[in-house]
Specification:
- The two termini are 25 Å apart.
- Strand 2 (57-58) and strand 3 (61-62) form a beta hairpin.
- It contains 15 helices and 13 strands.
- The chain has helices spanning 2-29, 34-41, 72-86, 104-113, 146-166, 187-203, 230-240, 259-268, 294-309, 330-349, 353-361, 365-376, 381-390, 397-404, 406-415, and strands spanning 48-49, 57-58, 61-62, 91-93, 117-118, 121-122, 170-174, 178-179, 210-214, 224-225, 244-249, 272-277, 318-321.
- By secondary structure, it is of the alpha/beta class.
- It binds beta-L-rhamnopyranose and manganese (II) ion (2 copies).
- The site of one manganese (II) ion has 5 residues, from loops.
Length: 425
């Protein structure tokens, strides 16, 4: 891939340089040094989800793409391509058991060879797995039966073991416990059971790890989800202790929710641990981040950049992509996503915070809004491309990926009948 990137960058070098210089001049007029922004932008990294590398689907069907990865080893290979082109996705977030490796140390070594590590691991108590003794049909950690609850805690502990062997240092827990009809679950007691189950898992969490609790208002529970909102998530994180925090998935909010304000509240509570990036029009649509509501994405980053700058956040939360690529080539979708995320982040860095504070103090509503809007409307594509170029990535990752013929090569290779997964390493 490296020589393709170099060739692709050579073709674009002149046009890119003039775009970058023009942007530099524009920023200089506002007394902003483009080099400083490049340095800040280079700090942005985001994890890729193992499930985002294959073609996703809906409950009505799935239309597999060509040359999809057949197992987690091939997912790692594809993730390395995304990282090679973008230079800012050095970690993979693994779903267990969807992508559970038979031999975690071998997978870790395989990933390390390709320059990748592992981000938060994700547990799954929302499906019954083959050979599972008890069913999660009526819940897992919140189930009325203590044996089911014990099995669910056992699964979470197992996922942590896998993560430990992979070198992860966090677990993301999304629970589907809930009910479809009034009366089905005891609203208060089901929450207490979930809290107690999480506390058991938390007590055995490896040293230095963080437990990220992800809320979602509905689906698959259609009447009452136990961890439905950021309030429930915060109560859990506070009950568990210092190493538990909330994870905000941008798709897990009721329509019209002010998501950036949710982010601000969790920062204020000292409990914002992570973000799942995606975009949506109606529900948990898992579309490309920035494709539907780019202004919201920018406003979320605005809160995060602001919180890091004034010390409300000691460090940025864990950034992860959580998308389902049903129609786009998953690698291309990820390249597009990362670029959208970086642009939103850089625009947030460009917000003139002193001016914003001044206009807020003066109750100058219009100018305060304009201060945000003008940063949002900046064309920062060349800056983000320059970050990539300097780190050895592609000025135009999608063009370089298409020029590489990677998908066509993999389509041939992965269609081969005889396949020995490298698990036996
Ligand atoms: C859920 C949630 C989780 C993700 C699964 C696949 O809606 O967003 O984070 O792991 O989907
Ligand atoms: Mn999520
Ligand atoms: Mn989701």
């Amino acid at each position: 891939m490296q020589h393709i990137i170099e060739a692709s960058n050579r073709d674009r070098a002149a046009a890119h340089r003039s775009d970058y210089e023009r942007l530099g001049e524009q920023l200089a007029q506002h007394k902003v040094d483009i080099e400083e922004v490049v340095a800040q932008a280079a700090a942005f990294e985001v994890a890729v989800p193992s499930w985002g590398l294959g073609t996703g689907g809906t409950r009505f069907g799935r239309f597999p793409g060509r040359g999809e990865p057949r197992d987690v080893y091939e997912k790692v290979e594809d993730a390395a391509v995304v990282h090679g082109l973008t230079t800012v996705t050095p970690r993979l977030s693994l779903h267990v058991p969807w992508d559970e490796p038979e031999n975690a140390p071998a997978l870790r070594a395989h990933a390390a060879e390709l320059g990748l590590g592992f981000d938060a691991v994700n547990s799954n108590t929302f499906q019954d797995q083959a050979n599972q003794a008890l069913s999660y049909k009526f819940g897992a950690l919140g189930h009325v039966d203590a044996d089911v609850r014990r099995q669910a805690v056992g699964h979470i502990l197992h996922v942590m073991e896998v993560g430990k062997a992979l070198g992860s240092d966090a677990i993301t827990i999304w629970l589907v416990d809930g009910g479809n009809y009034p009366g089905q679950i005891h609203l208060r007691k089901s929450f207490e059971r979930v809290r107690d189950g999480l506390a058991e898992a938390y007590a055995d969490m490896p040293e230095g790890w963080t437990m990220l609790i992800e809320h979602k208002p509905f689906e698959p529970a259609f009447y009452a989800t136990v961890v439905a909102d950021w309030g429930s998530s915060l109560m859990l994180a506070q009950a568990l202790g210092e190493r538990a925090a909330c994870l905000v998935d941008l798709g897990h909010h009721l329509p019209k929710t002010n998501v950036e304000q949710v982010v601000a509240r969790l920062v204020a509570a000292g409990k914002l641990g992570g973000l799942h990036f995606n975009d949506s029009k109606y529900g948990d649509d898992d579309l490309t981040a920035g494709s539907i509501k780019p202004y919201q994405l920018f406003l979320v980053f605005n809160e995060l950049v602001d919180a890091v700058r004034d010390g409300a956040l000691e460090q940025p939360p864990a950034y992860m992509i959580d998308q389902s690529h049903n129609l786009k080539d998953p690698i291309e979708a990820l390249l597009q996503t990362v670029n959208n995320l970086q642009k939103a982040f850089v625009r947030a860095v460009l917000v003139r915070r002193d001016a914003l504070t001044y206009y807020q103090q003066e109750n100058d509503v219009l100018m305060a809004e304009e201060t945000l809007k003008s940063a949002f409307e900046m064309d920062v594509a060349a800056l983000v491309a320059e970050v990539r170029r300097r780190r050895g990535g592609a000025i135009d990752p999608i063009a370089a990926f298409r020029a590489s013929g990677y998908r066509a090569d993999k389509t041939a290779e992965r269609a081969a009948a005889e396949y020995a997964p490298p698990q036996s390493l």
